[in-house]
Amino acid sequence: MLIIFFITLFLYLFLVGSCMDYVDYDFFARLIVGKTFFQTGDILKYDFLSYSKTHPWWDHEWGSSIVFYFVQDHFQDVGLQVLKAICLFVTFVFFVLIIQLRRKNLTPDKEFPIFNFLFFFFALQPISNLVFSLRCHHFTFMFFAIWLYVMEKARLEKNYRIMWVLPLLMIVWSNMHGGCFMGLGITGLYIIGEFLRKKPFLPYIYLFIASFLVMFINPYGVEYVTFLVKATTMNRPNIVEWQPPFGSYFMAKFIKFKIVLLFFMGLSVYRFYKTWLQTKACGKLNKLKEIWNNMDKTKAVLVFVMFLLTMKSIRFISYFIFILVPFCYDDFYSIFNKKLAPKYNKMKELILFYIVLFVFFLNITVRDLKYGNFHSIFPLSEIEYLIENNVKGNVFVPFECGSYASYKLYPNNFILQDGRYEEVYSPYLNDEHVRLITLGGVGWKEALNSVHHDIIIPYKHYNLYENLKHHPDYYLVLESRTFALFIRKEVYHRMKKPARIPTDEPEFYKKILWNTQIDWLKK
Length: 523
Fold this sequence. Notes:
By secondary structure, this protein is mostly helical. It has helices spanning 2-19, 27-40, 62-106, 114-117, 120-124, 128-132, 137-157, 165-176, 181-196, 202-214, 222-233, 255-278, 284-294, 297-312, 317-327, 329-336, 342-366, 380-388, 402-409, 427-439, 444-449, 463-469, 489-493, 506-512; strands spanning 393-396, 413-415, 455-456, 474-479, 484-488. It has a domain at 380-512. The chain has a 5-stranded mixed sheet, with helices on both faces. Helix 19 (402-409) links the parallel strand 1 (393-396) and strand 2. It is globular.
């Protein structure tokens, strides 16, 4: 039955993932880095895409870029969909292994109820955009799950020697994505948890030191690790995914997740109440002492700290859910478990398998599995206008759209900035300079004129859009539902007339999505 479950799991993840054909805003910057590596053998250390002031480029996602470009170049959209499904599948396989490990060592019930595990997928649905949007985090998800499994196996089976594989994993992880600090963070939490349990914690300290030291094995040297430490601890007040889920921006968003969060809190209260009733000690203080002595303190530290991080930033929501899935499974199962005869238990799992199998085949027969329906998140028509009319010059696009713009327009056009943020630019550029211009605060015009922009593509809900409509130096030449294209008058007058107006047909943009003028092999 476990084989059936794993097949069901992979098909489920592929099914949901293929329905969410999003890519991260910075994905196209990843393709540029990957293509440069394969065509030149170079790992980029300086920015060449921007016309703003930049510093040395410490690319903490260079390894992911190589993988993404190779898969996209050889296997196109389907390959990227499969890669995403494989990363998530490996992630959840190790969560299943953690559940099996904990049930084997901590509970008298050795049954592994597959069907009830699927309830945890409902916890994924409210954060599906965070989990299923193709991005470098998928490698961190996978390494995060492997790291947790090895740590938990070492703890429960007192087999600390197996942890030697984790520094080796860290060499790969730290060169794939800066999320490698999650591995160090989890190790630190295990140190605290095992110390509170009065169990051996020195092996975890040795692991922490070894894992940190191997991070210096990278193409950038010591400065790379220094950058990672700074980037991990820095404040990003104007980056959306670093905002708290209950802050002003997200107060009315992520409602489904907040419902799941309330459910988890209710489950925690219920479990504590049930444990309180089952505790035989007399007196409240003695009951609390007995509960504390019997508590899995490492689990408690993991859940509590990840909960606090989630309250600080939505960036940690996925990891909070990923802690709940394997470590709170038994709490969930204790409430919803219904003992059934083996034949009925087998039947319900087979029924579930065939349902997922049917929906899977139904889905892949009606979907083309292509990416590219991005009109609401990227200025597709505006960028295509610049390409078709060979408009050259500096392009000011929203922070999150810069990666796509540079991928499509370089070398004819340079961008002001993109989502690389602290990797390449001074945070002041986005947090102060661009924010002033886009929101139209006092002095916005002076700030705009301080840097030469030939082309500006703002969101239509920005104040900048209304301000430019009355600006004497720019023409409004094209509008779509989300974006608008403004071209400086002297640049516009140099264009060949009449200008070609691109289509807004989604299928067209799916066909040309991966087209780029970047080719280092051209002479």
